[in-house]
Amino acid sequence: MTSAGGFRSEEHLRCLICLNVFTEPVSIPCGHNFCRSCITDFWASCDVHHCPLCHQTFDKTPHVRVNQELRDDVEAFQRADGNAAQSWKVSCDLCRRRALKSCLVCLVSYCDEHLQPHQSAQALKWHKLMEPVESLKDRVCSKHNKLKDFFCREDQMCICAVCMKDEHATHETVATQDESVARRAEVMRMKAKVDRDVSDKITKEEMMQKSKRHRLLMMQKAKAETETCFGALISSIRLKKVELMKLLEEKQEAAERQEEELIGRLQLEIDSKRRIGAKLEELSNTKDDFQLLQELPSASSSSASTSFDTKVQSFLQVEALRTAVVKTEETFNQQMENIMMDLKGDKPMDSQTVFDDELGRVQQQYAKTVTLDANTAHPALIVSPDRKQVMDGFQKRKVPDNVSRFDCLHYVLGNEGISSGRFYYEVKSISRQTGWEVGVVRESVSKKGINLSLSPEDGCWTLGLYWGQLQANTNPPKILSLSKDLDKIGVFVDYEGGLVSFYDINARALIYSFTGCVFTVRPKVEEGFGNNLFQFRRPCCTVNSVNTKIYPIFRPSFYPLQITAVSRGK
Asked: CA end-to-end span of the chain, whole Å?
């Protein structure tokens, strides 16, 4: 608890011998503070004068001096918080006023007035005084009517001198003051452990809260993706249905036109045949041989006829359609069943696995093998033969010069670049580094001279350590909290999603994410320079944005920076 007045907390204002707020606080040569009466009584009971806290020994009784600053703090604390009122609960046994001290010899509590004989009378000065307490009788052995000045470690109880020589004669016993000093040290150790546990729990709670927020965002994103996927599938099915129905209708209209044409021709032929039949009927009844011979129709006119197929044409193999739809439905249902089984099969979350979901998924699905491109390394950088480690030798070596090599800034790129999709890699041995950078950059990043900006506007998305300070290289840079256990970092890139994320692998926690990243470039054509798309002077025209590759980038120090194999789904 800290007082309203801004002075030290009550814990700092308590004597470590009596555990009460200081009364006449004094400092001893080693620098520790105690109540005057407490340290005086403690040394009176010891053969060797030493500090109860640090155990520094002194050749003779040390000179003590009043700690004025501490005394002022005690008085201010008592005035502000009223904590001294807890002493007022004990009244003087003689006048019922506020007790100032309790005597362990008289077993009486005294106010300031009645305490005077103990401070002036020589016969009473040897009496042991302490802060006023209510339970004086509990400090006296009921069997022998003597103070319980000793502690039995075997029975874990306070005893008197007679008990120590009687039933506790074979037990390990010590003075109560010595045991209390050891107990206070143990209490301090226990309190320190509890404080550490509380701090660890708070850190885990913060991590869980961060994971909860991140999981909520990912869940919302997953729902939106599900809506989009199913909407696209439904739209595709409806579109195919409309196209198929339209094609069937077109086929039906064409067939109907053909049939109408045939029916018209047949009707004309029927009319013609009927006229011929009537003529033949007339000739069959005539008696005039000349007329019969002259008007008999020709055989070709009577036999000519339009041919047509009476078989109904099938425009659609309905069984094939039904089979295709059934197979598509079965495939879709099976895939969805697998997805839902994976989702239902998730283990219940606890404090050990709550951080594994997102990072584990990234590690499992998007981990790529990354190696170093020695042709891009600054001449002072030393790349290992397996192209997995790099360190800074701080002296330029003779290496072939090329357009892709950094000549001033101590960087090296990875061999593997992407212009779409997602990828993930991990780097370790960072905790010993005095300064470093990791991340990704566009392939067009400047490699010559010192005019390399680490800002996203210039195509760089990096995390760096500078003079013990961790920062995300945004514009302006963002200072981040640095974990003492940070020795392995994971880097994840979602090209289409415009995302670059950095993870603390040991803590299984997200360090920082660049969002809304623009990996594509909008080339410009410079006036008077033909079709050189990457000249950036006064443009005469522009073209559409094009994807450009992005590559991992590294800057080590004297200690190696190592690309490690990813432990998938840890």
From this structure: 42
